[in-house]
Design goal:
- One of its GO terms (molecular function) is thyrotropin-releasing hormone receptor activity.
- Keywords: G-protein coupled receptor, Membrane, Receptor, Transducer, Transmembrane, Transmembrane helix.
- This is Thyrotropin-releasing hormone receptor.
- This protein is mainly alpha-helical.
- The protein has a single domain, classed as Rhopdopsin 7-helix transmembrane proteins (Up-down Bundle), CATH 1.20.1070.10.
- It has a two-stranded antiparallel ribbon.
- The protein is globular, with a radius of gyration of 24 Å.
- The N terminus and C terminus are likely disordered.
Length: about 350
């Protein structure tokens, strides 16, 4: 059990667990940690739920690209709930409170959300490349039904791949008497897993994004020059705002995941790993911020998302007002008025 404890502390990969005293148990650290994580996770959960709602309930928002963004939002929600909230609970209690099943399930969900988010980013990058660089082919390839099949395949593959973590973690009691969700084997045995994860879910998606967005930029540059020369002889340029927005999502994914990915990779090779508590907190906060910031980007850079978000808010207000009117009518004039006057088509609230 002591060996497990040293392995757990030596190379943290679980994004919500594994801080060591004395800094992690100080009041200052706990206050900053809980405040930051709650702030970022609350904003991220609200934002990503809104993304899912506006795409699922607004007909004109159901595009192939937005299907991938829903997959990304669900993956980000998984990260925020399975990583951020247990982090708060452990910071407040000073020990692992979710038991053996919680250790297995939460670790699994963390890696599931992380890996699905990476795959979803890769999927919409490829979709954007086909839509802009091969517009004729995109009419048959970039469809909502195909996007749904790809998303289902991504989730099935990742669910199976992440099952490995059910056999790699377990709870243990450290010398201080606290319970931790830790590793079952020595740190060196996790190196192949770290390298595979780092390659498949970080390096490859970023390299692919660099290549594809480079090709997209080249095609758009050539088309813009052609339009300047013969503006009326060519079809209109495709909308660029969506492409810019998705490129920003990819850039932020690369930047915000870089500290943690680099830390885990380097600690896998170092005899004495670097585990400064404040730096580990910074790395984890970057992860949570990456999962929380995408809805902000959509709102800032997409007129359609901005309008849909406003529509969702106004719709909730309209429904609340309608229910209050119904309650007053029922109270003052009886149920017959409700059936004959309030439920006519002109009184029915329709969202989107």
């Amino acid at each position: 059990m002591a060996a497990n404890g040293s392995a757990r502390i030596a190379a943290p990969t679980n994004v919500s667990l594994g801080l060591t005293p004395p800094v992690a148990e100080s009041l200052e650290f706990k206050t900053v940690s809980v405040f930051l994580v709650l702030l970022v996770c609350t904003a991220g959960i609200v934002g990503n739920v809104m993304v899912v709602l506006v795409v699922l309930t607004t007909r004109h928002m159901r595009t192939p690209t937005n299907c991938y963004l829903v997959s990304l939002a669900v993956a980000d929600l998984t990260v925020l709930v399975a990583a951020g909230l247990p982090n708060v609970a452990e910071s407040l209690s000073g020990t692992w409170v979710f038991g053996h099943s919680g250790c297995l399930g939460i670790t699994y969900l963390q890696y599931l959300g992380i890996n699905v988010s990476s795959c979803s980013i890769t999927a919409f990058t490829v979709e954007r490349y086909i839509a802009i660089c091969h517009p004729m082919r995109a009419k048959t390839v970039c469809t909502v039904s195909r996007a749904k099949r790809i998303i289902a395949g991504v989730w099935v593959f990742t669910c199976i791949y992440c099952m490995l973590w059910f056999f790699l973690v377990d709870i243990k009691v450290v010398e201080s008497g606290h319970v931790q969700c830790g590793y079952k084997v020595k740190r060196e045995l996790y190196l192949p897993i770290y390298l595979i994860d780092f390659a498949i879910f970080y390096v490859v998606p970023l390299l692919l994004a660099i290549v594809l967005y480079g090709l997209i930029a080249r095609i758009l540059y050539l088309r813009m020059n052609m339009h300047l020369e013969v503006p009326h002889a060519l079809p209109p340029l495709p909308p660029l705002q969506v492409t810019k927005m998705l490129a920003v999502v990819v850039v932020l994914f690369a930047l915000l995941w870089m500290p943690y990915r680099t830390l885990v990779l380097l600690n896998s090779f170092m005899a004495t790993p670097y585990l400064d508590d404040w730096f580990v907190l910074f790395c984890r906060t970057c992860i949570y911020a990456n999962s929380a910031i995408n809805p902000v980007i959509y709102n800032a850079m997409s007129q359609k998302f901005r309008s849909a978000f406003r529509g969702l808010y106004h719709c909730k207000g309209a429904e609340a007002s309608h229910l209050e009117i119904m309650r007053k009518y029922v109270t003052t004039q009886g149920s017959s008025v409700l059936s004959t006057r309030l439920l006519r088509p002109s009184h029915v609230i329709k969202c989107f």
